[in-house]
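Researcher: Here's my situation. A collaborator sent me these components and asked whether they could plausibly form a single complex. I don't have experimental data yet, so a predicted model of the whole assembly would be a useful starting point for our discussion.
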Amino acid sequence: MRIPFFSMFMTSPFEGLQEHAEKVKECGWAFQQAIECHLANKCKTFEEFRQEVIHLETEADVIKRRIRGHLPKGTLMPVYNFLLFRYLREQDQVIDAVEDALDWISFRNEPGIPPELEKEFLILADVVIDPIEELSKMVAEARKYFRNYSEDQRVIIKNIIRTLRRQEHEADKAEDMVKQKVLNMNIDAVTVFHMVRLAEIIGSIADHAENAGDMMRAMVAR
Amino acid sequence: MTQPSIILILGYIFGFYMAWNIGANDVANSMASSVGAKAITIRQAIFLAGILNIVGAVFIGSHVTNTIRKGIVSTEIMADPHVALIGALSALLAAALWVSFATWKSLPVSTTHSIVGAMIGFGIMAGGFGVINWGKLLAVVLSWIISPFFSIVIAFIIFKIIVRLILSKKDNFIQALKLSPFFIGMTLFVVVLSFLFKTPFGKRMDLGPLAAVIIAVLLSVLLGFMATALIKRYVKDRALGAEAVFKRIQIGTACYVALAQGANDVANAIGPLAVIYFLVKTGGVGGKVPVPVFLLFFGGIGIACGIAMAGHRVMETMGEKITTLSNTRGFSVEFATATTVLVASKMGLPVSTTHAAVGGVLGVGLARGMEAVNFGIVFKIMVYWVLTVPTAALTSMIIFKILQFIF
């Protein structure tokens, strides 16, 4: 405090945001492997991947709390702090949804996903991975934008947001396909419920990524 | 040894100590942006700050020294040389003590405010509340509010201009090169002007305001283009864009701040010392006390010693803390700081470099230039602004009584 000049400089919340986005990305990879493993026969590593996701989620939570806890009132940032918090919440919900999906699978490990639905679930899992990866790219580009405020940079971010929206739409379609197929299969009600709910949870990953994109759009608004 | 010479020696010691403190504490403010933005290394910063503080102190520094001594406290109390002598010493001692205490307790106080408070304390003891020129004091207090504000506004505008005209452009490297004569010229304009108005050399030339402005404009345009030519020759790395250009310009602004700081802050250390010196040498104080150049040099050396001895540690912390400052931001902060300080110094107002620097950062922060700046800290700092003056005054009063008892 002796040198007021120093005390003004704080750790940038964007650094945390970036770190958080990287965790989300790592989670996405673990999620993909977990799903593929679960769909493959005699998978033994599903639980390992699930534990990894749980671990990553805890780490991301720490980052989230650190960001929230270190932004005192009167912090000057390139964006309003409520927007930053809203963005962070959406980004965090992506990771929560990933964890939820794996948890939901683990609640009823046997018989698991019926073979007839494997293809649909693989497609669904694939389409939600892309938006997850897009997030960390978006944060990095946003930081660049806040450094130079150039219109070109803003366009790059807007394009990423547009991509997120499109990917969410794809995910919706894939989710609907699963649901439609499940509801018309001749299987027990518990499996139907388990599968429909699973499709919804996996689908919500893309929803939250899209919401994060919308928040980012508000952050880079002029 | 006679009593006055003992007091003079003590004056030298405390004056030097005060200057040392200014160097040790305030160098961070002048060099932080440049070191933080990696425009210069810590070693270069210490060297530059040391030399330029001395230059600033010796060549531009005399004006403010007068104001602190004479403006706030009426000269009536100086009529009795003995009282004046003890008073000046107690003010110096009180300010030095308060600054030391603040350093020990990590409080953000300004050396400028400490010495002003101490002078007020002595004035009250020597002549009662009547000798304080409240109007002048109010002007000084107002300048503490106005100077950070002024600095905020300058930094805000400069940064917005940089964003609008340079950073947001497609090839911002070229754009920065194209406009760099303007930014360099602007910096030089203020420096040249203050040299023309305030240095003995400038006074000897005896230029009118218009002639001075014309000369300053011509010089800064010329030097601005020369500096740009140099930058063009040495900066080849286009990948970094405008920041690479501003990295070089920032070396200049770092010097600018150090110069302004020397000019402004040397008075805090040697203002009272000049009074003591004059009293001892002539036996009384006239209407106007000239500040001998060697005393300014003495103060400058003291500041440089402080920088050399403690600067390194301070700046290392700084390098770790300030990581988000880019060169364009650093330039805006430094330009605002130095301009505020030089203009205030020209007007004879004792402003704090620290406050101007804080204002500069906030200005860039308000212009959405920083990823995170703590605005709230300003209110904490303000508490100490308000506290410093009465505390230093009180300390000065007590010391005055003790010294009066001894001598």
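Model: Some features of this prediction you could bring to your collaborator: The beta strands of chain A are 75-76. Chain A touches chain B through 32 residues (CB under 8 Å).
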